Every structure is written in structure tokens, then in C-alpha cells.
Amino acid sequence: MFSSTGSLRNSGRMLSGGILCGSGRVKAIAPSLQSLAGPRLCVPVSSFSVMPKIPDDLKQSGSLPQIFSSDGTEYGMLLDTRKMSKLKPSIVQKRLAECKTYEGKEKSIRQSPWKLNRVCQLAAGLTLEEALTQLKFCDIKNADLVAKVLTRTSNLADIKDGLQISQLEVAECFTTKSMMLRRIKPMGRGRHGIMHHKHSHIRVVLREIDFPLRILQQKSLNQKKKWLWYQHRAENDYQASKAKRDEMLRLVEQQEKQELERREGAKGST
Question: 29: which residues sit within 8 A by CB, 6+ positions away?
């Protein structure tokens, strides 16, 4: 419901600028956690990498009154995003193309592609957390296999770029035909036919979630609040994972240094 300028963190990395709105201005949309005189954005200044600057034309605009807190740690402007035009598909595709993607596969699965694709359609388009939850309670055959492929691909994202499960979504999940084994089908009166043992392939693409874009695309204030909470949780998960990884690297370097000193001491004693 609000527009603010500055830099917002997207899945653990800073995004300079924000989202292109219908008017063409670069903005970042975030929902309000409070409701004072209508929708309002309350963003702590500490959440920005640089001090945000409000454009001069917005300062002079009487239809967008500025809201500042008494201590100067929060600022915002009144803006109803329901009256704004939708983002052009080209803008959405351009932002999604900049997000990191990770591909996972599973080949030669002993199941019909049509039956297995029903499970894949259940997970496609959801966040990774939601997809794993849905597959956990799905009774269809090989639902656990699809969840295994998703988890394996998310581990690849963690190894390469340190992205956590809360920062990923299932962009693609579908099945294709594999080689079908032909076998003899015995029939009555000395006849026989041909039966096919069907096999399938699974292809999964996980994509980094563009949280500012998702927040802008939501139509209700509650949905914006939900995705803003998702963004904060993803940031916390990323920071915790980064701290653990840095500590592990520090311990490895310390061990290597101690091993080198021990070898040098052994050579000096001899």
C-alpha cells in the first residue's frame, strides 16, 4: 500500500532501486504493519543499505503527504496501490530473468508420465516450503520422490550461493516420456499382443524469490503483510546460514594453520 525509495534486500542480497511501477518510476512497495489514517508504510531506516532519498516531485506533491516519526527512524507516504496499473509482463519477465535458478533432474522413473505429472503439477508454482509440505501429505505414488528431487536441488542452491529453502520457489516441475520397454502380452487362443512398461523423467527448476515483486503484485494488505513477513524470515535464515558458514571457514583455516605450525616445528626439531 506504500511506496518508498531506497534499497531493499532480496533473498539475502541488496537490490539497488526497487520495482518499476506503472508510471515508470523506480519504487519499492512494502505493506504497513500499522494502520494510521489509512494504509501507511513504516520502514526502519536501519533496514536500508544507504539512507533513502525522497524524490523532489513527491515532496512537492500534495496528494502524497509525507509521514515521519518523531524520532526520525521511520518515514513513509500515503499511496493506494489498488489504483495503480499492473506491471507490464515485460518488466516482470525482466526481473525474474535476473533471479538465480537451479535445475534438478531424475531419470528413468517406473511410472506413467501422465500419473507422475499430477504430482508435479501440485508442486509447480508454489514456494519451496509450501511444495514440500503439500508433497509430505500427498498419497499419490512417487510424491516422496518428487520431494527428494526438490530437496536435492535446494541443497545445490545452498552450496553454490548460500540460498535457503525460504528464499526459493518452484518455477518449473514437470515430467517427460522416457524409453518404454516393450514386452509380450499373452492372450487367449494362442495369440499375443505388445504391452509397454512406461518410464518417466522429472525436471525441476528452483528460482530465487523476488520479494519486492511479489509484495507489489499482491492485491490485499494482508497478502502484502504476509509476503513482507516471508521476506524478513528469508533474510534471517540467510544471515544465520552465512554466520554458520563463516564460522566453519574460520575453524578450517585455524586447523590448517595449526597443522602447518606443527609440521614446521617437527622439521625444526629434526
Answer: 1, 2, 3, 18, 19, 21, 81, 212, 215, 216, 224
What pTM was estimated for this model as a whole?
A: 0.68
DSSP 163-199: --GGGEEEEEEEEEE-PPEEEEEE-STT-EEEEEE--
Residue 8 — very low, low, confident or very high, per pLDDT cuts 50/70/90? very low
Residue 35 DSSP code: B
Give per-residue pLDDT as tens, 195-222: 999 999 999 999 999 999 998 888 888 8
Q: Where are the domains of the chain?
A: 2-91+211-239, 100-208
What are the grid coordinates assigned to 239, written together?
A: 544471515
Strands 168-177 and 19-20 turn out to be: unpaired
Residue 212's identity, in one-letter code, is P
Q: What is the DSSP letter of 15?
A: E
* Domain spanning 100-208, CATH class: alpha beta
* CA–CA separation, 16 and 57 (whole Å): 20
pLDDT tens-digit profile of 111-154? 999 999 999 999 999 999 999 999 999 999 999 999 999 999 99
The Cα–Cα gap between 245 and 12 comes to 14
